[in-house]
Design goal:
- The chain has 2 domains: 34-119 and 273-478, Zn peptidases (Aminopeptidase), CATH 3.40.630; 121-256, Aminopeptidase i, Domain 2, CATH 2.30.250.
- 30% of the residues lie in helices and 23% in strands.
- The chain is built from 13 helices and 22 strands.
- The strands form 5 sheets. Strands 1-2-3-13-4-14-20-16-18 form a 9-stranded mixed sheet, with helices on both faces.
- The radius of gyration is 25 Å and the shape is globular.
- Bound molecules: manganese (II) ion (2 copies).
């Protein structure tokens, strides 16, 4: 810069005013030093580890349990009365981590955050197995917002649990290790796709066509009607001890096979299945584990919900009384389980609803209003409201709570951006926020923006994950 330009900048009143008054979103990579980049990349290694062992809600809860144990969290059912760090789980698919530093002030509420650990996928039906054209297949029923065409012709893995009549359970995971077989859903060859090509993208692949290919050898190499299906049943019986009826009491989920990967020459992105919303589950978990020793007199809870992708219905979803049960279980543990304390504690709590937002994709700019949309690599999104068609179904956080949040984020140098989900009347979506707000607690949404949300391979920015983690820490420290 020449002297005269410098002088001009100093004296240009418009520029000065702009610097003083404008709020500009800033690339979170801007000015990052080597040490900070190392920190960002280190955190994302841990995040990828979390993703790789948490492809279902059950696996996520197991990961959260084992990671928190290493930080002296104890299962509430086994904890001594003096315990300050508790782990709670419900139906093995939902749970919470609790840090109680001040038993006397439990009535004053918790700093609480929550994410969901279920992701869109294909569930096996209750009667999945059939044979057709001497090949064996399993039928699925998709779970959550799935674009069906994204799930064909890719390697798929099967994860889940089978519960027997006597209550014992068997865990299944096929298609992840390199020596495992995988499964797949076939698509029509382009040569014969004249009719399919005319169909809209929503019906080009029908829900009932999402059947995974599982085998083709007839029982004892003798081809008869259903002998391939029987050979597969025989294999399952010998491997897992199951019969066809056992599928009725099973939760078997078909998910993309493979591990989370770095994306880009500069490795600035993470590509993986299930980042909605396990990115927030991870950041919530890691933030709590790291902040616990720094926060001396606050009571903290991190919750992990199931069923968000299907409307939060069911006793492990946020639209049940699960948060009430969590807080009640904690109050009971410390001998404060009366109804008044529970109601007050819930109402006095502050809740950060941790879920992902949609980042601007240059190929589909038109769905966003750029000033108020999440930008990839511009830090964590702070989302006052969601909903659709005139904010219908939104929690819409109060201005006072938004002020407290941005104060905490600014204080801890979190790079954050205000963001809404899509432009007005484009569509929209919701989070668990309003299910928590009904207890009287303050609630706002906060999480990173993704590209390809709900796809088998979703994209996050490492620097956004880092600032999401930092934002959750700042929430526990300064709210
Ligand atoms: Mn979500
Ligand atoms: Mn979702």
């Amino acid at each position: 810069m020449t002297q005269s330009v410098k002088d001009k900048k100093k004296t240009d009143p418009l520029k000065k005013l702009g610097e003083k008054l404008s709020f500009k979103k800033k690339s979170a990579w801007q000015g990052v030093k080597k040490r900070e980049q190392d920190e960002i990349y280190k955190l994302s290694e841990t995040y990828k580890e979390f993703l790789n062992c948490s492809k279902t809600e059950r696996e996520a809860i197991a990961t959260i349990e084992s990671w928190s144990k290493k930080h002296r969290f104890v299962d509430i059912k086994k904890a001594k009365k003096s315990a300050k760090r508790l782990f709670l789980k419900y139906n093995d698919v939902a749970g919470a981590l609790v840090v109680v530093n001040d038993v006397k002030s439990l009535e004053n509420g918790f700093l609480m955050s929550g994410s969901h650990i279920d992701s869109p996928r294909l569930d096996l039906k209750q009667m999945p197995l059939y044979e057709s054209e001497d090949m064996a297949y399993m039928k699925t029923h998709y779970y959550g917002g799935v674009k069906k065409y994204q799930w064909v012709t890719r390697p798929l893995a099967l994860h889940g649990t089978i519960v027997f009549e006597n209550g014992s359970a068997k865990t299944i995971c096929v298609g992840e290790s390199e020596n495992d077989p995988v499964f797949t859903i076939n698509d029509l060859l382009p040569h014969l796709a004249k009719n399919q090509n005319k169909k809209p993208i929503t019906t080009a692949i029908e829900g009932e066509q999402l059947n995974i290919l599982v085998g083709s050898i007839p029982y004892k190499f003798k081809s008869e009607k259903d002998s391939v299906k029987l050979a597969i049943l025989d294999h399952l019986n010998r491997t897992y001890g199951i019969t066809e009826q056992d599928f009725v009491s099973a939760e078997l989920q078909v998910v993309p096979s493979g591990k989370a990967r770095d994306v880009g020459f500069d490795r600035s992105f993470i590509g993986s299945y299930g980042q909605d919303d396990r990115v927030c589950a991870f950041c919530g978990l890691q933030a709590l584990l790291d902040v616990t020793s720094e926060v001396k007199n606050r009571n903290l809870i991190v919750t992990f919900f199931d069923k968000e992708e299907v409307g939060s219905i069911g006793n492990s979803g946020a639209n049940s009384n699960l948060v009430e049960r969590i807080v009640n279980d904690v109050l009971q543990f410390y001998g404060k389980g009366d109804y008044n304390t529970l109601i007050r504690s819930l109402a006095n709590s502050k809740f950060l609803s941790c879920d992902v937002n949609a980042g601007i994709d240059p190929e589909w700019r038109e769905v966003n209003e750029s000033m108020n949309a999440g930008k990839i690599g511009f830090g964590v999104c702070l989302t006052k409201y969601t909903g659709s068609r005139g904010k219908v179904g939104t929690n819409d956080a109060h201005a006072e709570f938004m002020a407290e949040l941005r104060h905490a984020f600014n204080k801890d140098r979190v790079l954050w951006q205000p963001a809404e989900l899509g432009k007005v009347d484009q569509g929209g979506g919701g989070t668990i926020a309003y299910f928590l707000a009904k207890y009287g607690m303050e609630v706002a949404d906060c999480g990173p923006a993704l590209l390809s949300m709900h796809a088998p391979f979703e994209i996050s920015s490492k620097v956004d994950v880092y600032h999401t983690y930092k934002a959750y820490k700042a929430f526990y420290k300064y709210l």
